[in-house]
Structures are given as C-alpha cells and as structure tokens.
Amino acid sequence: MTPDDEKFLRRAIELAAAARAGGNPPFGSLLVGPDGDVLAEERNTSLTDADITAHPELKLARWAARELAPAIAAATVMYTSCQPCGMCAGAIERSGLGRVVFALSNDQLAALKPPPAPSSFRQDGPALLDEARVPVEGYYT
Known about the structure:
Layout: H1 3-21, E1 28-32, E2 38-43, H2 56-67, H3 70-74, E3 77-82, H4 86-95, E4 99-104, H5 106-112, H6 129-132
Parallel strand pairs: 3-4
Antiparallel strand pairs: 1-2, 1-3
C-alpha cells in the first residue's frame, strides 16, 4: 500500500460518507488513470435513484467500458470504500480495469450489518441445453 493508495482510499471513504449523508448506502469509489489523475468519482445512489444497481463500482466500470480504450482501462486503479459485491466484481472484470484497492472487505462489512435475510427467489435449471447452446456456441472462441 503506497501513500497514493492511502490518499485515494481516503477519498473513497469521503465519497461513502457523502452517499450516506445524501440518504444512500455508504459506498464510494473513484477511478485513477495510469498517470495518477482521478478520471471519475461515484457514490452509491441506489435509494435516491430508485435503482438497485446504482453502486459506485458498477457505475465506474460502465463508464470505463464506454469511455476508455482497453489499454488505458487495464492501467487504471479503482479505489473503493468496500470490496466490490459480486455484481460489481463481474462488471469490473468485463470492463477490463486493471486493479481494485478497497478499504473494508466483504467479511468486515458483514460484521457491521445485520444478518442477511435468506434468499427468497427460486432458481430452476439448467434446462433445454440443446436449444440454449445454439446462440452461444462459438461466440467465445
């Protein structure tokens, strides 16, 4: 952890505090380019936007995928107040970002929250493999 890492993590924590002060869950993130400049900042707006996907990490990953060349995206660092959730981690991976530095781990966050409710949706599958594979087969090769 470098002094710059600590400086940018502190900014992510400030963004988390601003999200909470604005009535949202307390999460904040920023994306730093290869030259050390802050490219973009986001905070959680899932409540005020009425959008369950409005996590700062996801918003930055989407921005990077739209706005940055792949080589630049791969040289960026995302600083975030908490380890990305599964949804955000998938978006970060797909956007090609190079590194994520986080303050709180998911386990540390879980210790600060009430226990989660059990999953309430049902999943059935896999099914119709022969049909479902047709549009996918060969796409990733």
